[in-house]
Amino acid sequence: MRPLWENLPFLSIFLAITAGILCAVLRSGKAAWRLTMLTTAVNTLLSAVLLGCLWPAGLSFVYTMGRFAAPYGNAIKAGPLQALLSAVFCAVLALALEGGKRDLFHDVSPARQPLYFTMVNMTAASLLALTYTNDVFTGYVFIEISTISACALVMARDTGPNLIATIRYLFMSLLGSGLFLLGLTLLNGVTGYLLMPSLAEAVAALAASGQYRLPLTAAVGLMIAGLGIKSAMFPFHLWLPAAHGGATTASSAILSGLVLKGYIVLLIVLMVRVFTLPLLEEMGVTNVLLIFGLLGMVAGSVSAIREHHIKRMLACSSVAQIGYIFMGLGLGLGFGTAAGLTASCFHILVHACCKPLLFCCAGRLSAVSGHHRSLRNLRGSAYRDAVAGVGFTVGALSMIGIPLFGGFVSKLYFASASLSSDKTAVVLLTIALSTVLNALYYVPAVLAIWEQPDEELRLHIQETADPAALAFDRSFTVSALILTAGVFVLGILYHPILNVINSGVSLL
Amino acid sequence: MHQYLSLPILFPVVMGLGLLVVRPARKLARSRYVMVSVVLTSLFALLGIQMAYRYGGDALVCVLVRFSASFSISLRIDGPSMVYGALAAVLWPVVTVYSLEYMEHEGHEDRFFGFWLISFGVVLGIAFAEDFLSLYFFYELLTLSTLPLVMHSMDEKARYAGRKYVLYSLSGAAFAFIGIVFLLNFGTTLDFTYGGVLDPARIAGNETTLLWVFVCAFFGFGVKAAVFPFHGWLPDASVAPTPVSALLHAAAVVKAGAFAVIRLIYYGFGPDFLRGTFAQTIVMAAAAVTIVYGSARALRTPHLKRRLAFSTVSNLSYILFALTLMSPAGLTGALTHMVYHAVIKITLFCCAGSIIVGSGREYVYELEGLGQRMPAVFGCFTVSALALIGLPPLGGFAGKWMIASAAVESLNPLAYAGIGALILSTLLTTLYLMTIVVRAWFPVGELDTAALARLRDPGPRMTVPLAALTVLGTALALASGPLIRFLWAVAHGSL
Amino acid sequence: MLETLLENRFSVTAVLLFGIGFLNLLLQQNLLKKVVGFNIMDSAVFLLLASLGYIEGGAAPVVAEGTSPSLYINPIPSGLVLTGIVVSVSITAFSLALIQRIYRRYGTIELDQLRERARKEDD
Amino acid sequence: MILLLPILLPVIGGCFVFRQKNEQARDRLVLWLVGLTAALTALVCLLPVRTLQLTTIQGTMHLALANDGLARFFMVLFTGIWAPVSVFSLPYIRHAGREGQFLGFYTMTLGVLMGLCMAKNFVTLYMFFEMMTLLTLPLVLHNGTSAARRAGFRYLGYSVFGAGMALAGFFFLSYYLTTPDFCPGGALDLPRAALHRPLLIFVWFLMTVGFGAKAGMMPMQAWLPAAHPVAPAPASAVLSGVVTKGGVLAIIRVTYYTFSPAYLAGSWAQSALLALALCTVFTGSMLALREKQLKKRLAYSTVSQISYVLLGLLLLSPDGVGAALLQAVFHAVAKDTLFLAAGAIIMSTNFARVDQLRGIGKRMPVTMACFTAASLSLIGIPPMSGFVSKWYLASAALEGAPPWAGPAAVSVLIVSALLTAAYLLPVAAEGFFPGAGFIAERREVGRRMTVPMAVFSAAALVLGLFPGPLLRWTAELAARLF
Question: Which residues neighbour D58 within 8 Å (Cβ) at sequence distance 6 or greater?
């Protein structure tokens, strides 16, 4: 008799989907909101419990769905890493909704609110599935699901620019998933399997025998390119700022905090579990990832410097942060220690914690400034809601990488990871450069929100801002505080977390 | 006992935050609050230094935050800590007295003194940091906590200056970070160890990389020490209120840069590893260039505080130049000049501030004949000017002497050139300071006697600190024998 | 040469189709044409899948008495094709709905014009 | 402790001179201060040699004073010049204004000069040297015109840069010394120094040129002609009579008390410096000849005359040093007379240019008499004192190394003597014999101004007639250095 908690992953996915369906039939947005929050909380709890069961024992398990045994059928594989990630994802999702609550009900028309929450739940489900799945095709299906739901989240705030951003986002994602599907097919063609373990064996055999090298390489390239497009890897990042910048606060937070990460997690799983890092290094894939990552770090920040629209600026900085993650992946095996991988996983957590915080605070700040978004109009907004100001500052400092904040730790680990590879110099210099660039746009933003506005601007804002928005926002304050605390926890108590990640990576 | 050192760090920070929150209504209450906090902090710090001197640094090692078995933010007092910490602890209260009076015409005193206290704690943190991680942490914190002070007046110039300051500093730290990462990975230990922590076994084969990394980190920390070409923020930052320019941009912050370089060279990479390498050549050349460049720019700058700022640029590079000699003698010279320059330059800046308060005149050519009207201020100014020029037995000479003799001992041609730069900058220093003195005392041409007649020395709460600083500087200079013996001991790692 | 082409004609066709669809999706400015391109791309993939799964002379994988299992065609690709079709249909529906909304709002479905308009509307 | 008195008394007294508003009281105070200082100086000179250590700068580097032979010689010289000039300056400065400031700095400078003489090691010397520069700066700036300020800063710049060069040199030198203190015959650690002789020779060159700036040696003589005309007459008198000697003193201390003449003799630096000195002698006279303004002409003549002294020093032979010291004394006496006379003329007639001075002798016979006497001494016509020193200089040059120096020196001396005659005598001649039909009322200045000039010119004559004791003294001083 297998232990009961092995059902938890499936259970949480199932819960999310059911909640989504229920939301669709619900009348009122409030109810849907409550239901969603409830489910996410429960899922967080379940994942935490799972983590509690897996991490001390240091084990991972495969959970076969239905009656089909491997190599057919459909399976879930859960280890400490997956449990940790899904716990964080669910928690952050809940906090993002909490933090963006007021904006959300302000931006989304009441009729659509239940559907919005349906999409949120679908996103949650696909995130969990992408994290847990042990089956490539399931991965594909959930990629598509998350594509649809993500597009819906963007266009929930029903403005023209948003629609267009959505359609561009949609087509980019379609490109991505198309490439992924083709790669998947080729892989299936040369191996004949879809379950990751069997795929891994087959790939290993092919790599050893050296036959079908071309289709194999093509498959790897296509799948990674597909996932790269969907997670806004450098050359394919142009769609992101508009999409994430325009959406309502909660959506932006979820999209750039979580959705992007889902694809990356799948990519990591594929890289480690199926293709294995040595093979990828031999194919030179890791170098490509590294280069794109480094370019992304720079390009994202550069485009962020040119932005004055605060949320688009944050979106651009997401591109840079994704660049960090890909750089970590590109460091690859690094003389046996997959340090880059660990650092990337940690940075996924950090970014998943900082970005929603930043987006929520930005939303709140612009709310108290009469929904202006450009930095010039946000002057002194921090004094109108101190918590938002502090939260934004903390997030920004963490992004710049000040000690005690999460960002510093991941920077530290990326740097040390680079030492155990042969690309130390370029990586370190790029890290330093991108730190400078981060400072170049985060510092002015922070200064802007904290600087006393001159009189007429203040009055102008006073009469444009509606008193309702200026009123104290409890839900936002709560989530902002929690997320801030999270940033500090990641910055100070990071050591156990890193242990979890390490064992999780080894158990992938 | 084992948490004692956290006291001088946390106490002022807490008090500062308290001031930011409480915002006392009455001026007297605020002044008392600030004064008491500052004095207590200094006492804590000095007591800690005293104990460390008596019982050795290990007696009071203190861990503020422990990340993991190896990483922590921890405090320990060793030789350089004593020098830098004592410097801050002695100067801070004096300038605080001065600024309590001065800040009345600037306004927003609560905000100002709040961050004033916080940065005091952070500076002490830099002084007492035990390892590079802690140093880096306090270093970044210093930038952030002093930013509001620089931008105090919040007008366009101040905002620009503040932005420039924080960007320069953070970027510098970003490059210093590279060096720290390397030290973490190539060193035997994270803690500062006299003579360097590099592990010979591990660095074998990576020497060139490490040297480049060192250059990178040197310039990274050098940004705060305003080494050419990264000096740009300092003159602009002189729009800050005078106490800030005096204490932070003449002593605390910029010296923090120099202090970090001390840690980097003598306690991180190790002088023996660096001596005679191309890295040494690069950094030494940069320092020598800055020495001349700074004084030349100072001579051509009419704005009084900017001129002083440029002179700071040049004098800081005296220190950096001495450090790049990579020898204990050089370190002695650097520490000596660090001490004397801090006192002297603070006095000069405070005089400038008093002039601005008393007469509202900010440009050198406006100072014609002010000496007769403000004898106290210009008396202090003249004495300090002579000291900075390096007229024995006043302070500046001892530092210059130590640096130059260290340079001669180093038998390094570039160091000889550095001595030339030193002398040239002495000439320029004489010119750009004596022009002020001469204008003040020996006016030329038609004077607006009516306007002059209205001018007076500022109140005793400004002039007394001025006099105190001047006396302090002179006394230190006359006591240079024992002082330099102490610094020598520090520089040879026997403390 | 010709033999190789002939014996994996399916894959060649699939690749050609995929290319066509991909380019359409990438280069077309008209949103509808983009959707069509996407569909072509998907059907190319399905063709490839189906052909991969097909075994000459193999029977449909319906388990009956007395037939040797070696002659079944591989059922998995077929399953994939079915799932894929569902996915692509849903996506198509979604994008068409989206395009319709855009058309209602802007009266055009040419992407470049739309981006112009969006830049104007932006705050 | 007593060594400190002649320094502190004037320096502290000077501060009171600033405060003192009442004129008579101020004048009395100044005279008392100078007189007392002179007395103390005499006392110090009579005392046996003693050392006073003030403070320690670092390790063996002290600030210390000692009244050794050279110190005594120069102290006597300086006070001897200072006292009469101060008498002269009291009435003169009254018409120049801001008496308090002038007299205050004037008095303080005396104290610093005493310190300069008694400095026991280089750092002390450097300290007093810089102080001297800074304290004489106000004297140059005194008349408060922008021209004066320009001249003042030029003076400051040149002196500080010179001193800085010397200091830079000493940074290197100190590394090769057995003791930082001055001791006759040099303190070099010879075995160590032998290793880096080229470096040290260059260092010597550097230091000599640096201090030479103060002594108006080329290439850094440009401040002298600028500073003298703008300064009040007493100031220019002490500037060219005393302050320039400060440079000479410093060079002696460096060359004979830190390096040793034996170590330096025959080096390229010696030849180079000799060449510079000779060149200065010549050009100085030439420029003086071409200069129309009287005080500026005198300034150029100072440039050339001080280089006589340097010439003697750079011969690195006992006779050379002796002759140099003689020349220092005689030039001081003569040149001060000339400057005071020029001052007197300016004060009573406001004539500053040479061509205005026709018949000046009719107006101010005493002044012009002194002027003539001093001119004769400066040219070096027996029995005036200038002749003695020039004679010994020439002979020293002829026997001293290097071989080319002797003839060159002699010829330059002769040429320069002729030039000197050419630029000084016409003034006197025109002054006394303006030709027929020149009527001028007699406008002599007061006794308090004529007496000092008379004293100086008398001294010039007497020293020329009975040079014996002075000769013995200088010879004995010089002998101790080898």
Answer: B398, B401, B402, B480, B481, B484
